[in-house]
Amino acid sequence: MSTIEPTRGTHPVVIGHLVMGLAFLGLVGIWAAVEYGGVSTQDLRWLLPLPWVFAGAAGLLAVTLSGRRRATAPYAAPTTSYDDHQLDTDHTTGPDDTVTDLDQEEQR
Hints:
mainly alpha; two-stranded antiparallel ribbon; elongated
């Protein structure tokens, strides 16, 4: 059974999800501004690229900041205990050999 020690802080950011979420929110905001606000459809030519530019900039910033944290943060490997499941080194099998519980009982 493997035990993983909990770490403190926040979970890692999935940058693709961050970028697409920000772009989606920006496009919904533009749609709402055109539909309910004072933005005309003439302004869509320069408004529609803005969510993609801001989402891309946020993604680049997230990559830069997470890269710095990964480089300085020590890696803690999960500990694994083989106490419950010992490796069976007495019997080896080939690709065509199958060992069943009955075969192991007969060998004992």
